[in-house]
Description:
This protein has one helix and five strands. The protein is mainly beta and 89 residues long. Strands 1-2-3-5-4 form a five-stranded mixed barrel. The relative contact order is 0.25.
Amino acid sequence: MAKEELIEFDGLITELLPEGRFRVRLDNDHEILAYTAGKMKKNRIKSLVGDRVIVEMTPYDFTRGRITYRHKTDGPRVGGGQRPPFRKR
């Protein structure tokens, strides 16, 4: 196994925590603490409770992970809303 090799799991966000962290329940009923990956922060991809996500984990620690992808949903998102346009003053 290479040093950089990561393990990917599908999961569901169950709880929003402070400082940009999330509690995610994986498909195998394991619950972990996860944070948003840098590319998702850069592109302002927001995640809410109930979103399906892909989580990357190292083989060394199965209690923490990094959210790398949020699956698109067909229905409307709850609590998000669209950001108002930026206005210069």
